[in-house]
Amino acid sequence: MKDKIHIISTASLPVEHLQRLEQHGFEAEVIPFIRTYPSVSEESWQRIKKLEEQKATVVFTSVHGVAAVAEHIDRKVNWQIACIASATQDAVIKHFDQSNVIATAPYATQLAKELINHTAGPVVFFCGNKRLDTIPQQLQSAGITVEEIVVYHTELTPQQVKEDADGIMFFSGSAVESFFMKNVLGKNTVCFAIGTTTADALRERTGNKIVIAENPGKKEMTELVIQYYHEHS
Question: Residue 162 belongs to a domain with what CATH number?
């Protein structure tokens, strides 16, 4: 592997992941292309408080959604929870309980299929303002009623990258959208996508090579980058 392969992460990475990249000969640069923050309206807050007292089937696809809802929960809930695996599942277990989890999957399409096998509905989807249609459409097509509650917002923060990178790590379709607002990929830049929906967003904008993580998570993405360049350098 050549010295100092330049990698850009479009989201923050834990210090230990940055150190691991550096130990393997990478020059890692973090340039956030989105900003995400909790955003629970008065109406949504009241709905969460009612759900807190009820048996419900709920869906989380983001750590941000879990944290935003947990902030407004004061008691042990009687919820059946379906969530994306890895970091989101870890957050669910931290704020709720493993026993609440009825379905997990690496990607939204698979999670919807799992949920269809577990419930006839209705389902509450705690989501962001830029959520994709994947889960609502699949559940509704299966005859399951979906109530969407927006609990966090994502803002695009596009900025120009000063020089081409060997590889760029993308963690969401929103980050892809933000990146391409002010940048064009170098012809040899490899894109690393956290999942299939992020990869689809990339395919709409570039013909460059796209490598997809088998499981979503920053640790998994970091290891994917290391493995890829060890095998291709």
Answer: 3.40.50.10090
Q: Tell me 231's DSSP state.
A: H
Whose structure tokens read 């890895």?
86
Question: Which stretches in the chain have pLDDT values below 70?
Answer: 1-2
Burial class (CB in 10 A: 0-12, 13-18, 19+), 204: exposed
Does residue 93 share a domain with residue 106? yes
Q: Which residues contact 87 (CB under 8 A, 6 or more apart)?
A: 63, 216, 217, 218
Q: Enter the pTM of the model.
A: 0.90
Whether the link from the prior residue into 122 is cis, omega within 30° of 0, is: yes
Number of domains in the chain: 2
In the listed set 131, 154, 177, which residue is the last one of a domain according to the structure?
A: 154
Domain that holds residue 168: 5-33+157-232
Number of Cα atoms under 13 Å in the Cβ half of residue 209? 10
Retrieve residue 15's tokens: 């210090």
Tell me: do 50 and 103 sit in the same domain.
yes
Dist. CA 194–CA 17, nearest whole Å: 15
Burial 75-98 (b: 16+ CB within 10 A, else e): eebebbbbbbbbbbbebbbebbee
143-191 pLDDT per residue, tens: 999 999 999 999 999 999 998 999 999 999 999 999 999 999 999 999 9
